From TrEMBL:
DNA-binding feature ranges: 32-51
Taxonomic placement: Bacteria, Bacillati, Bacillota, Bacilli, Bacillales
GO MF, one example: DNA binding
Residues covered by the HTH tetR-type domain: 9-69
Protein name: TetR/AcrR family transcriptional regulator
UniProt keyword terms in alphabetical order: DNA-binding
InterPro entries the record matches: Homeodomain-like_sf, HTH_TetR
Keyword Protein biosynthesis: no
Length: 223
């Protein structure tokens, strides 16, 4: 890596670290460019030499809170006895972590980033390569795919190939799953329902299991 690239990554981390500090102490909604600049010890204009907009800094800082989910996803996926179970378990893990930290997951998967999220994701893992250490080959493609629709389709594709679902049903399951999760996350974030993170995750998964299992074309083969 060139000296210029090393210096750029170092500066990049200064600003991401400052953003993460504000999120930790004050919450995502209180992050501003001025606060980031003050903590990092640089001017606001310097930040814009490295980041196009504030949402990108929030995205990168929020990604650091996904480490526990990323590592736990590997365990969840390995416990699935078949592709349908793996799909359900992947969402169970996602719901568990997203409802425990809704602002972070909303910032990463729902917020308007003003550019291609895949490019931001690639940039993050270029700088924080250690986050990928120890991940299974089954999980890595999911982590590199920011679009949760594509991620879910990738998990279900093998179920289609195995004859458990047809393509149309697979598409419907993915779309309904994401709509259910986004609806519940928004409801939870806006305090529109009196429930804790565990209850929100459990209710979401009840619907995910129901729509997935009701679409099966043949019984699951038990190992």
């Amino acid at each position: 890596m060139s000296r210029k690239k090393i210096q750029m990554n170092r500066m990049w981390k200064y600003f991401v670290d400052a953003t993460a500090q504000i999120i930790e102490e004050e919450g995502v909604e209180n992050v501003t460019i001025r606060k980031i600049a003050d903590i990092a010890g640089y001017t606001s204009s310097t930040i814009y030499n490295y980041f196009e907009e504030l949402s990108h800094l929030i995205f990168f800082a929020s990604m650091r809170y996904l480490n526990e989910y990323i590592k736990e996803l590997s365990f969840y996926m390995t416990t699935g006895k078949n592709t349908i179970e793996k799909y359900i378990l992947s969402w169970e893990c996602f719901c568990k972590h997203s409802f425990n930290n809704p602002q972070i997951y909303n910032a990463i998967f729902n917020a308007d980033l003003g550019s291609k999220p895949e490019e931001l994701l690639a940039r993050y893992f270029e700088v924080y390569q250690d986050d990928l250490t120890g991940l299974s080959e089954e999980v890595k493609p999911l982590i590199f795919e920011h679009n949760i629709t594509k991620r879910s389709k990738a998990v279900l594709q093998k179920a289609v190939e195995e004859g458990y679902l047809d393509n149309e049903e697979s598409e419907d399951i993915v779309n309904m799953t994401i709509l259910i999760w986004r609806g519940m996350l928004t409801t939870f974030l806006n305090n529109r329902r009196d429930c804790n993170p565990e209850d929100a995750a459990a209710e979401t998964m009840r619907y995910v299991r129901k729509i997935t299992m009701s679409a099966l074309k043949k019984p699951l083969e038990l190992s």
